Amino acid sequence: MKDKYFSGVEVPRLIKLSGDKYAFRATEFVVKSSALTEIAAELSEKRPSWTASARAKVALFLSELRRKALHAEGSTFSVGEGMIREYMGCHFGYKAIKKLRDRGILTRVGNGVVGVRTDQYRVCDALLMSKNAEYEIQGGTVEYKHIAAILSKLSAWNCNGREEIHSRYASSLTRFRIDPIEAREVLAGHPGIEVGSPSWVSQALSLHDHNETFCASGRFVRLSIGTTGRVYHPICNLKECIRKRAIYLRRGGSEERVRSFDIRASQPTILAAILMEAAGLSEGVSGAKILGSDAALNRLSSVGAEINEFSSEGLDRSEVIRFKDIIENGDIYNYMCRRSDQISNWQPTRKNAKTSFLRDIISKKGNYRAKGVELAFLTDFPSIYDYIFQFNKGNHSRLIRTLQWAESEIVLRFMWDKLTKETKSDAFTVHDCFYVPPESVDCLINLADEASSLIGVKINLVESLDDKQEEIRRRHEVEFLKDNLLNGQEA
Fold first, then answer.
1. By residue range, what is the domain housing residue 230?
2. pTM reported for the whole predicted model
3. Which of 51, 132, 177, 298 is 20 to 30 Å from the Cα of 405, by its Cα?
């Protein structure tokens, strides 16, 4: 029962059957219950011919609410006016919400505040536990047209103001899928995640969001754009060991496992580029092609920063050059681990050093005493530490948001854009990590070198190897041995 999340379809779909018939699948309050039929009849009392489409619209709306509830902490989620209009229309929408509340299917747990938040809701437990209902509808009917229109809008969800590059990115994402069987095997061995636990279910639902989301015209992937320019999609929510199970679906029908490459210490690398500019050391570097163009600077202003605020006369140039050299020729996080041990007699893991670097140095909130990694950085790079403090004055997240802006300009708008155009292939990213077909690797490495010359700091790509493959192989061998022993056979 627990494995159903990895094997069933938990999202609404419109599937063409034989002839002019379609199967419409959606989550209902109770499978093929009378509740939705009664609500639909009440909503379309003056126009009985609309009953079927009203029932399907409400069922589709509840499908989305169920997905939101399973993803949301405490199963509490927002329902805005735009969502109500998109799924059910102005004619049915608000009346349907009232009837769903009257029947206990929806419970409002927080009122909306204009310009701040929308109404907060929860769904009843019966809806969370319900199964998918599937029934046929006739093509060309009013019911079919209404449902097809709504499902088509799903593919454009969050598309208002989306640029052409984001549309191409969303289209490219549909060429990849995650192998659900291997994903389940890998996740079963992941420390700290029990099969059937909320974390397990969350991973499974994100996998389904990517693999199994359809609109009337075919598959699409949910995509949203953050205020700093980062793109977010279901794969971003998956553990790294699951992302490595991504398969590229070639247009000829063949499939191939992707290769993944991280930018080593991406945030410090970008910080080094900004420091070089701020210290006046980037002379001869034509970074304007990436970070200094008019379009890029307009996007920077929306983050809450201006290019003229980067410069600083207080920066020690020798410090900046030394920081840049460590980035280019080593690993800044490993360096901070060693220096923390020497200064504070405490050597964190690389992962903890990275967390501390971003939390206590790049976006420090509060005036707590420097120790560990922060103290080591303050000791070795005092003028850079002061530069970051001044940059964040009044807003501790200002620099980290600026670094994310620069990351999106380099990774998405420069490297991903040129990679997909030059190779005429597909690729996707998870912030500073690239997932590409094998034949695109050489082009990716060349683009990393080109971007390095433009920002003035070397971008080091590190391939993220599939370290879980060996675990799967060994587990299969053990299971095979157990089966043979149980059957009385010799190994």
1. 163-257+469-491
2. 0.71
3. 177
